[in-house]
Write a structure and sequence with these properties.
By secondary structure, the chain is α+β, with helices and mostly antiparallel strands. It has a single domain, classed as PCu(A)C copper chaperone (Immunoglobulin-like). Helix content is 16%, strand content 53%. Strands 1, 2, 3, 4, 5, 6, 7, 8, 9 and 10 form a 10-stranded mixed beta sheet that branches. Strand 4 and strand 5 form a beta hairpin.
Length: 144
């Protein structure tokens, strides 16, 4: 009987993980000497309830914040935000000029092609995602 409950719990745990889709994670390669960069990806909510990205953490940076870009007096500006909400069966693309994960005070220089682990904390648990470091020119050519 105990084995049966264990299998049921394992089944539900596996199903829950499938409710969050994480696609195309990447980090901008910052210019030499810069201590700032941003991380981007697409988050898919495959459930019937709101999915909330509450915070992010990257060992490579002293500070990791969720940010949005907004216009003020025809100038693009950024500000920290407390969380990001993805509606049921929806997706949110973190991209340049929009929402993103800001990595502040990098502890070392990044190299194109390396993978940076970033922890994403959702209202349904933590996911560790490997973000590939890409040069800005390579990303512009890859976009349609």
């Amino acid at each position: 009987m105990a084995k049966r409950y264990l299998w049921i719990l394992l089944f539900f745990a596996l199903c829950q993980k499938e409710e969050i889709g994480l696609k195309d994670p990447y980090v901008h390669l910052p210019p030499t000497g810069s201590q700032l960069t941003a991380a981007f990806l697409t988050i898919q909510n495959k459930s019937r309830e709101n999915l909330i990205l509450e915070k992010a953490y990257a060992e490579i940076a002293e500070l990791t914040e969720l940010h949005e870009t907004y216009l003020e007096e025809n100038m693009a500006r950024m500000r920290a935000i407390p969380n990001l909400v993805i509606s049921p069966s929806g997706e949110l693309q973190l991209k340049p000029g929009s929402y993103h994960i800001m990595l502040i005070n990098l502890k070392r220089e990044l190299k194109a092609g390396e993978k940076i682990p970033i922890e994403l904390y959702f209202n349904r648990g933590k996911r560790v995602v490997l973000f590939e470091v890409k040069e800005a020119s390579a990303m512009m050519h890859a976009q349609p």
